[in-house]
Design brief:
Blueprint: H1 2-6, E1 11-15, H2 18-28, E2 35-37, H3 42-52, E3 56-57
Parallel strand pairs: 1-2, 1-3
C-alpha cells in the first residue's frame, strides 16, 4: 500500500492469495503495485487502506 500511495495511485485491489490476485490482474489491468495480498487479515487491511486514503478498494 505504501508503494501504491507513493506512486500516486488512488485505488488498490485486495486478494486473499496468489490465485485470486492473478484473476484480479486479468480483470482490472492496474499496475502491479496496486495489488495487495491480505491473506486472512481483511479488517486490518481495510483499516490500513482507509488510513492511506485510497478512493477505491476492489
Amino acid at each position: 500500500m505504501d508503494v501504491a500511495k507513493a506512486m500516486g495511485h488512488s485505488e488498490i485491489v485486495l486478494s486473499a492469495g496468489r490465485a485470486s490476485e492473478l484473476a484480479h490482474m486479468r480483470k482490472y489491468k492496474l499496475p502491479d503495485e496496486c495489488y495487495v495480498m491480505m491473506g486472512d487479515y481483511l479488517e486490518f487491511t481495510l483499516l490500513e487502506a482507509k488510513k492511506h486514503g485510497f478512493k477505491k478498494i476492489y
